[in-house]
Amino acid sequence: MASLWRSLVVALAVVALWAVLAHSRALFGQAVPPENRPTPPKAETVPERIPEADEAFERFKARDWPSAVELLQRAVKKNKNLPPAHVIMFQWFAQSGQGFLARMSLEQAVMSDPKDPEAIVILGNIALQERRINDAELTFLKAEHLLKDFDKSPMRKGILELQTLSGLTNVDEAHERWKDAQAKLELLLQLSPRDAMVMQRLARALFQQGNAAESLKWLRKSKEVGGPDILTPEAALAKFYEQYGDHRNAVVWMHKALDKAPEDAATQLVAARWALEAGQLDDFETHAVKGLQLATAELQRVPEERSAQVMARLLNAKILRGLAALFRKDYATAEKYFEAARLQSPGNFAATNNLALTLCEQTDEHTGQPDQAKLNRALELVNANYKIDPRNPEINSTLGWVLYRAGMLARAEDALRQAASSGNVSPDTAYYLAQVSYDHDRRNRELAKNLLEAALNTPFFSMRAEAQTLLDKIKAEPPPKAEPLPKAVEKPKNAR
Known about the structure:
- The chain is mainly α.
- The chain has helices at about 1-25, 50-60, 65-80, 85-95, 100-110, 120-130, 135-150, 155-175, 180-190, 195-210, 210-225, 235-245, 245-260, 265-275, 280-300, 305-325, 330-345, 350-360, 370-390, 395-405, 410-420, 425-440, 445-455, 465-475.
- The longest helix has 22 residues, at about 1-25.
């Protein structure tokens, strides 16, 4: 039964991989942190500092939560602009990493004051972040209904109306209802006329309706308003074309962007990511190297108020530079940049995950075997990620490959089959699973062959050469001999 389940998982993984390849050119979204992705705003109306609230926070830190709630309820009565007491408790629990208690506080907020929309808006944003789009839509519609009669605080009402409208716009974008999204974004711009991110979202909605000229106009306006931290309009339009599947026009506009802003770090980095997804390794490396140089220099001259944005860009540059080295199999260089990214942001998944992959590939120069010290560190990194999110398919994929490099085939195969069972199978994962399954049991050769053929249908991925070598090896092997059927056992002549 166990072997039947494993075979079914692999078969489903092959189907899932072919489905991904049929609908997507870009398979590197999880490897590199995205830029300019609209993020749902937090529903938190910032409270004024008042004594009861300060005292409540002290009681919260002392884990005297009932007293904290009671003090917050007193504070809310004094200041109508404060969120409900349990919403503030939710924020404190969330900020201190106590997710379960944060969720309980949010549910308590809904039960304690069902006519106050703030907790509902937060639940809508949580649903968006978890990609539960239909749940998010229903939740924001409920918040919109509650806001019609909400009169506790004009300030809170205005903030929550803006957040609810933004949330419903995110829903329209997720469902690709571009005309509806356009109408809401135009309304958001009336309420916040200098919001560069809303302008970029409007540009995308217009582009998706076939209006590239109007889209470019709004991209240019967003750059004028947002300044140096907003992507070059031509590069943003190139991204739209690539996402739309029009690679020819994407090339034209990316070259225009590079001609117009050759010394802009963000433009170089988006060109690097674009080249990676297009399978142009030389261009990818060129833009990643230059982007890192520009981001490093930019950090030295920016004012303090912009340093956070530039640091984020520098982190992205380090990861892209590491990926360029990883694709070249230059593991020492890749380790250098992934380690630098991890030191800058210890919790960054792309940095730690790719560092683990880089470490496990390195060998001892004398024995040619995996470098045991680096392999042990790779296991530490990937196990730490696994403890945080054991169901994440990319984490299970990396865990499986590191375990394979450590010689633990059975555990490696289990982790990779877990990664494949998610239905979202990257070509690298397909290669890992094919290699491990084939080495573990030659009877898996046909499934390994199917996985490899599906992976190689992708234009570009880090283990493409290895996948081709393994596929050629499997095809060159003679088919396995059929095992003879067991002979029937004859009954003794005197048996009844």
